[in-house]
């Protein structure tokens, strides 16, 4: 049993734990509170020695205990060390422990961290932040930081994540950001369809092969930039099957979505072939196999490619658009949807049909031009009559002609991803120039 003692410095609680006599000094506290703490210490000792669950009443008391008392209980070996309840320290520790997220997500966490620290201060106790404070923070983002609505929603959503983690750590009881609108809606004014004519101008304005690669992978391959672009290696370029394995850092934490397989579209094949020629020329031994990253200029997803790309767009005589790389993906997806079934396209782009409809698919000028093209009434009548005859002609099944299967690329990304590098298809050496007639890719 824990006992309460008093000396010249105030009360202290003595107890036995694992056969050792220990004490917690409480300082200037009245006897009634000291006795209450002693009863809770008894519960904690019993909990530690039995291995059973801590009773709800003691758990609730412990969650509300001040940091100083909590630290004394921790130092005595009764409980684990509590994470700091100060805003700056808790968020920094939380971000450091989130090794499961992509580098881009970590950057976004850190941006929200800076906003919260700037507004509230690093030493602000999280328990002291109220719902009213959270609303004021949102208004500050809008009026002082001049952030767009979707950006504000993302920042508040991440702030809500931080406080939810604090609740889980039993540092606070309520989330001040709970109930705040954090869902990001599609922004039509930021949509931009990059036409083929504009794409050719941008390709021509690219300063070198590396940037032609980056642009082509985004515009014609639908790659996420920079994460998927920089993750592409020559081992994932399957020349014999005309496919490319796209490794996706953003979705790798979801089982079965670590990578996907896309066709080697003609626009991609030409620039990849040029890049492989350049990579082969750099090899000392002509019999070596080209390996390593396809894009070699940049190595980290933290690097800012947007600024350079906007300069390229301006050099092409075009005006930069708000979401440069996402709109390249959206453009490619919109084009592919005109040709292939939706389920095929979204598997190539790497998200769901719901996300595609909400954030990627666009209505273009070409859609309007096609819709208003005149069509002869005679042509329509002949077409209808022909289809009717096919459906009712004796000896033929009375059903419409089945649609041709346009999905010529079979096999899952997981099957291809499991291949060892020595099993991957190699390019035909005839494509590699005279000096590589005997080389194998």
Description:
- The protein has three domains: 73 residues, no CATH class; 99 residues, Tyrosine recombinase, N-terminal domain (DNA polymerase, domain 1, Orthogonal Bundle), CATH 1.10.150.130; 178 residues, Orthogonal Bundle (hpI Integrase, Chain A).
- By secondary structure, it is mainly α.
- The termini are far apart.
- Helices cover 48% and strands 7% of the residues.
- The protein has 18 helices and six strands.
- The longest helix has 20 residues.
- The strands form two sheets. The protein has a three-stranded antiparallel beta sheet with strand order 1-2-3, covered by helices on one side.
- It is elongated.
């Amino acid at each position: 049993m824990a006992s309460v003692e008093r000396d010249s410095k105030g009360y202290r609680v003595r107890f036995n734990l694992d056969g050792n006599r220990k004490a917690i000094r409480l300082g200037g506290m009245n006897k009634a509170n000291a006795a209450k703490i002693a009863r809770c210490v008894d519960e904690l000792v019993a909990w530690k020695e039995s291995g059973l669950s801590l009773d709800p009443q003691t758990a609730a008391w412990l969650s509300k205990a001040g940091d100083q008392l909590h630290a004394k209980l921790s130092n005595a070996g009764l409980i684990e060390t509590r994470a700091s309840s100060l805003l700056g320290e808790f968020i920094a520790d939380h971000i450091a422990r989130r090794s499961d997220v992509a580098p881009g997500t970590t950057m976004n966490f850190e941006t929200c961290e800076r906003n919260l620290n700037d507004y509230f201060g690093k030493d602000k106790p999280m328990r002291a932040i109220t719902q009213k404070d959270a609303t004021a923070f949102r208004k500050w983002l809008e009026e002082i930081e001049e952030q767009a609505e979707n950006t504000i929603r993302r920042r508040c959503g991440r702030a809500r994540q931080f406080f939810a983690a604090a609740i889980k750590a039993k540092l606070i009881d309520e989330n001040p950001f709970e109930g705040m609108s954090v869902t990001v809606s599609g922004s039509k004014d930021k949509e931009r369809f990059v036409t083929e004519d504009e794409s050719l101008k941008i390709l021509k304005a690219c300063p070198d092969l590396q940037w032609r690669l980056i642009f082509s992978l985004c515009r014609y391959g639908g790659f996420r930039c920079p994460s998927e672009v920089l993750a592409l290696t020559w081992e994932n370029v399957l020349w014999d099957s005309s496919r490319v394995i796209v490794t996706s850092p953003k979705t790798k934490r979801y089982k079965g979505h670590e990578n996907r397989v896309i066709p080697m579209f003609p626009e991609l094949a030409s620039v990849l072939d040029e890049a492989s020629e350049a990579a082969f020329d750099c090899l000392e031994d002509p019999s070596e196999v080209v390996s390593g990253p396809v894009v070699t200029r940049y190595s980290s997803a933290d690097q800012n490619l947007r600024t350079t790309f906007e300069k390229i767009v301006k050099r092409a005589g075009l005006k930069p658009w708000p979401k440069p790389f996402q709109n390249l993906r959206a453009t490619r997806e919109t084009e592919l949807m005109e040709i292939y079934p939706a389920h095929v396209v979204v598997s190539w782009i790497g998200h769901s049909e719901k996300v595609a409809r909400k954030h990627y698919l666009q209505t273009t000028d070409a859609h309007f031009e096609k819709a208003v093209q005149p069509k002869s009434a005679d042509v329509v009548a002949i077409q209808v009559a022909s289809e009717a005859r096919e459906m009712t002609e004796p000896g033929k099944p009375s059903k419409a002609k089945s649609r041709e299967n346009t999905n010529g690329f079979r096999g899952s990304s997981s099957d291809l991803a499991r291949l060892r590098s020595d099993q991957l298809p190699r390019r035909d050496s005839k494509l590699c120039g005279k000096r590589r007639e005997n080389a194998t890719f």
